[in-house]
TrEMBL record:
It is found in: Periplasm. Residues 53-277 form the Solute-binding protein family 3/N-terminal domain. NCBIfam families: SsuA_fam. It comes from Lacrimispora algidixylanolytica. This is Solute-binding protein family 3/N-terminal domain-containing protein. It comes from the Bacteria. Belongs to the bacterial solute-binding protein SsuA/TauA family. Its main location: periplasm. Pfam families: NMT1. PROSITE patterns: PROKAR_LIPOPROTEIN. GO terms for cellular component: membrane; periplasmic space. InterPro entries: ABC_SsuA_sub-bd, Solute-binding_3/MltF_N, SsuA/THI5. The keyword Zinc does not apply.
């Protein structure tokens, strides 16, 4: 069993979740660790002759860089992009707060915690990516006899604190007339959660991304799926400093317009894109293609950048209210102050310029 658990941990350590939904929500005031950097060079300069430099904070692998290259849309005009890789969305938000980066993307959770930091986190959400929240599940071993969320009463349930897993597990319990107090919650990491489930240390596991794939590969089955619980909204944030910089915001608008067009390319090249993303996400080609197909079938698209409206803000508010209910937050938060709707016109203009 020890050898098997070690193998699973090594597999998970080599892979990173496809989505940003698992980003942690804690807002430590300590300085973020020095991130990994990677710059994509601009092919031309701006009209003034000066190249604008964008610092992009990301988690996981450099998915946009790979996608833009594959689709032939990485010929940036007048700007270049330097990628800073962090271990979680909370660290991206800390870097944004201290102006170490210009722009980032997270799940709905990190901005909530960041807003409680000194100065309100120094950020605004300017755009939202909509995608299907696949591989967000509660799983249990097939041999456990646990077949539904109602069977979790009195059971040891592993979850990753302050993440989407924490959020959707609570929602699933409430839907079945249970509360957080009806289970024995166990705070755990994604890798340790898989090994704990297989070894019988926990009875079920709420998680996301590749940890779900790993659990299923070792005899786990789905007892709860969060596709209809999570909004699939992933905010893009920029610093308040950058928001005042007209040239940088225009460059960011062009960048996101290219990402949107690149995903439209991927929708007609699913097999090619599946091959590209399989290795960096630690999945097989078949698993990668299956995930892409499920994502597309659920929404009718892989990715859409959407305008900020009341529905988007209400979704974020619902997350904040849930974490307050779970005593993760000391006070309830009005999330409407996070958003800036002025950027979307620049994004639309950039989209039109690419046609």
């Amino acid at each position: 069993m020890k050898k098997k658990c070690k193998k699973i941990k090594m597999m998970l350590a080599a892979s990173l979740a496809l989505f940003l939904t698992g980003c942690a929500a804690s807002a430590s005031q300590s300085k973020p660790p020095e991130p990994e950097k990677k710059k994509s060079q601009s092919n031309s300069q701006s009209e003034s002759g000066e190249t604008i430099h964008l610092r992009y904070g990301i988690t996981g692998w450099k998915v946009y860089e790979a996608l833009l290259k594959a689709s032939g849309l990485d010929d940036f005009k007048g700007y270049d992009v330097e990628y800073f890789v962090f271990q979680g969305g909370n660290l991206c938000m800390e870097a944004l707060a201290s102006d170490q980066i210009d722009v980032t993307g997270t799940s709905e959770i990190p901005p909530i915690a960041a807003s409680m930091a000194q100065g309100g986190g120094n950020f605004k959400i300017i755009l939202v990516n909509s995608s299907s929240p696949q591989n967000q599940e509660v799983v249990a071993l097939k041999t456990s006899g646990i077949k539904s969320i109602t069977d979790l009463k009195g059971k040891r349930v592993g979850y990753i604190k302050n993440t989407t897993a924490h959020y959707f597990l609570n929602k699933m319990l409430k839907k079945e007339g249970l509360s957080w107090n009806d289970i024995k919650p166990v705070e755990i990491t994604t890798a340790d959660g898989v090994t704990a489930l297989i070894s019988g240390e926990i009875d079920a596991f709420a998680s996301y991304g590749n940890s779900i794939n790993a659990a299923k590969a070792n005899g786990a089955v789905t007892i709860g799926n969060a596709v209809n619980i999570l909004s699939g909204n992933f905010p893009f944030e920029i610093s308040n400093t950058v928001l005042k910089d007209e040239k940088k915001t225009e460059a960011i608008a062009d960048y996101y317009a290219r990402v949107q067009k690149a995903y439209e390319w991927a929708e007609t090249h699913l097999e090619e894109w599946a091959k590209i993303q399989a290795e960096p996400t630690g999945t097989t080609y078949e698993e990668s293609l299956d995930l892409l197909k499920r994502t597309y079938e659920d929404r009718g698209y892989l990715y859409r950048s959407i305008e900020i409206d009341d529905k988007v803000i209400a979704s974020e508010q619902n997350v904040a209210d849930s974490f307050y209910e779970l005593n993760v937050l000391d006070k309830n938060i009005d999330v409407s102050s996070f958003y800036d709707k002025s950027f979307y016109k620049k994004y639309e203009k950039a989209r039109n310029n690419l046609k």
